[in-house]
DNA sequence: ATGTGC
């Protein structure tokens, strides 16, 4: 494929940032790539073939890759794709398979020294695992929660006991500190799902899921240049944070399955298509497009509530371990797989993010009230055994529709990792057997070998690219002390 | 990432 590159951001005065940006011209259009030389050089031809297919979707206005980009189904993970709402197409492939997948961070009143004892970390991991099911087969819990209310209204559909401060306006932090606590949808679309899907999804409320999903206990290290923002967010050095990475579980899967065939049918009728039969898209205002958007919103609602219930269970486990003095507040809940409308200077855009995190700068009007002055926290997970990051958007992010990376980004497939990496190497990366061991819930690391850090790019390089490109800055680094993984 | 079917 013929590829031309330039590296001038919007032709403006971003010269200091140009080492981390390239506009790559492909036959079907341009993809804007944010990455340093080494990460850019490591991007395979397949990543650009996928871009060339995605750029053939009618009326697309902008497409970009973050430095952690890697091949996915139909569309790469690390994609931002933008249309004007009026003439938009919506693509289930660009949203991706785990609709609403994202991060949540809670701040605790614990300090790193409270978790210095490896036995205590093990005890805590066990207590959390008891309340946050990490296996697929779980019994029905939360019998007081109505799933039809949850998928229709998000956090607003939960009984008050799960959102204790939601109804006292002066302290309504848990709702305002969530990217969106409820997506509005036409509930008629929900009647399309059979009973077995409702039952399975209800059983899965508050469960972690497999793959890269996790709960981690981390110690916060504030970036010197960000002390003021860190203070306003309530962070302190050595503070223990709880980071949760999970998504919409089987509910989102059912949405993809049902809508996928409807969208494929609409594509045949409309005569649309690309070289990749797995790249699905339909006009936003068509029947198939509308059905997908409404049901995608139901999966976003499920995902937000799922992370919220995982946090609720973790709070219970920590209270059991540390007593009633334990406190845990919400820092933020932020997705990286979704599509929705965003306003830009009076214009309405339809923005898809797949493995891309929105990071708004200070003062941007779309920030929630609690973060209007600082910009909202952008929550970026590292791979197992490596640090995660709390970041904040920079004004330069406007050039990329405020999208930054969503993590380290896979560098080799799950199968290739299992062939290449030895359990012993994974064990060393987790410092197993040492006093500073990162405690993992699994008795054997073998079951999660495909999640070893060797399967991922270097998160520090990814972060350096995002910062270097002027999209965001680091507020704090979060070092892992314990991890709970599903399978 | 996921449930389902081989």
Automatic annotation (TrEMBL):
<keyword id="KW-0436">Ligase</keyword>
<protein>
    <recommendedName>
        <fullName>tRNA-splicing ligase RtcB</fullName>
        <ecNumber>6.5.1.-</ecNumber>
    </recommendedName>
</protein>
<keyword id="KW-0692">RNA repair</keyword>
<keyword id="KW-0479">Metal-binding</keyword>
<comment type="similarity">
    <text>Belongs to the RtcB family.</text>
</comment>
<dbReference type="InterPro" id="IPR036025">
    <property type="entry name" value="RtcB-like_sf"/>
</dbReference>
<keyword id="KW-0464">Manganese</keyword>
<dbReference type="GO" id="GO:0170057">
    <property type="term" value="F:RNA ligase (GTP) activity"/>
</dbReference>
<keyword id="KW-0342">GTP-binding</keyword>
<dbReference type="InterPro" id="IPR001233">
    <property type="entry name" value="RtcB"/>
</dbReference>
<keyword id="KW-0547">Nucleotide-binding</keyword>
<dbReference type="Pfam" id="PF01139">
    <property type="entry name" value="RtcB"/>
</dbReference>
<comment type="subunit">
    <text>Monomer.</text>
</comment>
């Amino acid at each position: 494929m013929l590829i031309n590159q330039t590296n001038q951001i919007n032709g403006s005065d971003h010269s200091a940032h140009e080492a981390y940006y390239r506009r790559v011209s492909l036959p079907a259009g341009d993809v804007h790539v944010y990455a340093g030389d080494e990460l850019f050089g490591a991007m395979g031809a397949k990543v650009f073939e996928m871009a060339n297919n995605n750029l053939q979707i009618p009326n697309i206005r902008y497409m970009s890759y973050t430095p952690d980009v890697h091949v996915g189904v139909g569309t790469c993970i690390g994609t931002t794709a933008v249309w004007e709402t009026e003439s938009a197409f919506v693509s289930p492939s660009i949203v991706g398979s785990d609709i609403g997948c994202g991060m949540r961070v809670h701040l605790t009143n614990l300090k790193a020294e409270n978790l210095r004892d490896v036995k205590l970390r093990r005890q805590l991991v066990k207590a959390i695992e008891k309340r946050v099911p990490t296996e697929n087969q779980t019994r029905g819990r939360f019998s007081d929660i109505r799933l039809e209310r949850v998928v229709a209204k998000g956090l607003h559909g939960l009984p008050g006991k799960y959102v204790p401060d939601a109804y006292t306006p002066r302290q309504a932090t848990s709702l305002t500190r969530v990217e969106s606590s409820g997506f509005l949808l036409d509930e008629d679309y929900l009647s399309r799902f059979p009973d077995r899907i409702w039952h399975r999804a209800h059983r899965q409320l508050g469960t972690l899921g497999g793959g890269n999903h996790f709960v981690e206990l981390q110690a916060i290290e504030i970036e010197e240049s960000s002390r003021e923002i860190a203070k306003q967010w309530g962070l302190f050095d050595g503070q223990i944070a709880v980071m949760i990475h999970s998504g919409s579980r089987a509910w989102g899967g059912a949405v993809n399955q049902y809508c996928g065939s409807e969208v494929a049918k609409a594509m045949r009728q409309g005569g649309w298509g690309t070289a990749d039969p797995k790249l699905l898209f339909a006009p936003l205002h068509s029947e198939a497009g509308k059905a997908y958007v409404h049901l995608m919103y139901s999966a976003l609602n499920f995902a937000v509530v799922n992370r919220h219930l995982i946090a609720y269970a973790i709070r219970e486990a920590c209270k059991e371990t540390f007593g009633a003095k334990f406190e845990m507040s919400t820092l933020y809940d932020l997705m990286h797989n979704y599509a929705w409308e965003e306003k830009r200077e009076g214009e309405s855009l339809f923005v898809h993010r797949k493995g891309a995190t929105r990071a708004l700068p200070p003062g941007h009007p779309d920030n929630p009230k609690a973060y209007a002055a600082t910009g909202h926290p952008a929550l970026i997970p590292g791979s197992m055994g490596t640090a995660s990051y709390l970041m904040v958007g920079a004004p330069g992010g406007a050039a990329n529709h405020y999208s930054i990376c969503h993590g380290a980004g896979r560098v080799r497939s799950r199968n290739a990792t299992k062939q290449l990496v030895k359990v012993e190497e994974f064990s060393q990366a987790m410092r197993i057997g040492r006093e500073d061991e990162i405690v993992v819930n699994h008795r054997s690391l073998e079951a999660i070998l495909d999640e070893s850090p060797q399967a991922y790019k270097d998160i520090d390089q990814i972060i350096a690219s995002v910062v270097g490109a002027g999209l965001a800055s680091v507020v704090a680094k979060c070092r892992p002390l314990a991890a709970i993984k599903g399978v």
